[in-house]
Amino acid sequence: MGGPVRLAVRAVIVQDGRLLIVNAWPGGVSDLWCAPGGGVERGASLPENLQRELLEECGLRIVVGAPCLVNEFHDPDSRFHQVDIYFRARITGPVPVGAWTDPAGVVNRRRFVTEAELRALRFKPDTLPELAFGAHGIAAQALYDPLEPIVR
Prior knowledge:
This protein is 16% helix and 35% strand. It has helices at 46-58, 115-119, 128-133, and strands spanning 6-12, 14-15, 18-23, 32-33, 37-39, 62-75, 80-91, 109-113, 122-123. The chain starts with 5 loop residues before the first strand and ends in a 19-residue tail after the last helix.
């Protein structure tokens, strides 16, 4: 019944009251915004994958915190199905300014937005404003056991 489910990781980065979002539609064919991240590669932990994706797509070095959302979506027509795991994260180095570009050409725009600015845009998932700007208590965080090699 269709191909495998695609697994991806995304970062919820709020800095100075602003959320980092990206437009990942090459050529600007859509005005849809989302949290930065991307597909998981085998053999690396979810946080390692997220660190790689943020460096590639946004030129940012990050520290990955606790997972905060599991979101899945699919396209019934193409049978595409993806599960995104969102992690809280923070930037550890300088934020590139000016004419930085994603070497893979996936992310064409990135920006920090307030909650009001986010709500004026088209974005996914629908819960992104609450996730970024809502309660950050321990009850809102999930547990995560980092990637371990299989024991034989």
